Sequence to fold (645 residues):
Amino acid sequence: MPPAFIVPDISANTSIRALKALHHPGGYEQISDDLVVRGTVIADDKSGNLYKTICIQDSTGGITLKLDAVNLYTTYPVGREIFIKCKDLWLSDYGGLIQLGMMDKSVPANPSATGIPAVLLDNFIIKGRLGNPIVPKQISISEFNDSLQSMLIQIKDSVQFIAADTAKLYADTTAAKNSVSRTVITCAGNKAIVYTSGYANFAGVQTPRGKGLLTAVYYVYKTTPELIIRDTSDVSLSAARCGARDIKLAELKNLYKGSDIFPGAYIINGVVISEPSNSSPGNIILQDGNSGINLFFGSAAATSKFVPGDSIRVNITGGMLTNYKGMLQLNLPAASLPATALANKKNIIPQDITIDQLFKNITQMENTLVRISKVIISTDAGTQFSGNRTLTDASGTTNLYTAASAVFASNSLPVICQNIVGYANRFNSGQFQIRAMEDLTPASGCIVHYPFHVGYDFSAVTTSSGTTDPTAVPVSKNINFGSFTANGVSTNPSAASRFSFTGWPTGAINGSEDFTGNLNTAKYFEVTITPSAGFQLDLISLSFILQRSATGVRQWAVRSSLDHFTTNLKVALETANNNLLIQPGSLFQITDRALTGPQTGCALVLGDEFKQIKTAISFRFYGLNAESAAGTFSLNNVTINGTVN
Fold:
């Protein structure tokens, strides 16, 4: 058995308040009288937030002791009574905080306070009983004053960390281990600083998001009160933040201005529109009126208990509005997840809309329930829902995403067009999701326009590749694209990686704008586009890059098979190009500046006659008025846009 504790034969003859009264701000006072103070340790170095320091207090006040030793908590733990024989110790202050310790006078002109050496601690400090109760002084922030120095206090008004300091680390955890000040505030708006060392073992803990009681040692630096918590058990902030009020989702979303923000103390209400198995763990999509948002409570949160139609009420205090891969999201602590849904189930009426309208208004309509009529789900990437599929209506396309965990993920995709209900968001550039197979109903009379955007880059052309472009032709759904061919001109290209040939009609002279040549209908480049059986084309635009050699063609025209190649198609410049002119008769003309580089901006103006094309259509590109028969005319980057239905 360890020996029984023997009460030390010593008693106090002064109080901490009286001892501190001997100090003059900014000075150093050595105690010459046999003064003894008694106090209870209210803070030690166990957590690392105090270093070589303990704080004691009696009924009159508190004081900080500087001790040149570590692991003080093993000898002077919180709750231990101690007696301090003060004779020969020194009083000083650091930034106004009164301390008791020793004096370093090695530099007489600049003395400094130091700790009582470890070997002398028993000469000055007599250990008393352990486990003495400590009751923090209840006080309001507005009542802070210097008499509280080094005392354990508890703010009697509930506090919370300000929004900017909520869910932030208490201190710096990098190699620098900088101390950090965080601000707490009462519901009445009174503020105080919580100061934490980077060496505290809780420096990497996040500040709580809620409201409640805060216990701390009262310190001061110059004129600023600082609260030093002993460990995180001093911080009990788990209640709903003060001032929480109801806010509409539309109003909440408007608070986001492009960077992460903690909105403040709010409560939101809404109806769940997401289905758990087709959502990532910890996520719920909530709709309120015509606004919706994705809530993320952490991947381990039990969000699967909420299903479409559940009404929930969420305290979002401490939550953060953020952009998650393009989608507006509200990140929330797991504790914010409601325990259960409210009693009233609600049925959200989906808004009827097209894909084009939906994504043109996605900022307002993101994560709200909508209905799109007469859509086709592409089976190009697979015949089951799981993964990414293409969803197409008459106005455009988007990505239909289904999680592998969805209960319908392995169901077969419908082969006929559907009316579809679901929600869309900007996640990964935009996607649409359904909740169950009941979100699909067969539709009739579908005319779905599949857009296409294809290009010819002639990358496989060489100076010996002949008159047919060997480059792989573009590929698009329900349409066939032919290869470019050269007719009536040289037998091989004059350059690689573009469609360039010689042998064009002459009629131009260098330095002159007078032309004597004419278009030769037997000399042209040609390409043919054919819709698949049962489909028709709507051609929207056709653009290309033109180029000539120093003696090459000065003019060119384009015709189509719609009128058997009898009329030049109307041409335009998509972008400004001072080297090109458009002449009467729908002719492109290059200015006479010995220009041999690629000329961009050339385009055709395709009218209604290029809509509803059900058979093959060909385009021919004619060069004319070359300055010599050896001059070239070349095409590159031919781009064709349209839809097929």
Observations:
- The helical segments are 16-20, 121-124, 249-254, 355-360, 362-365.
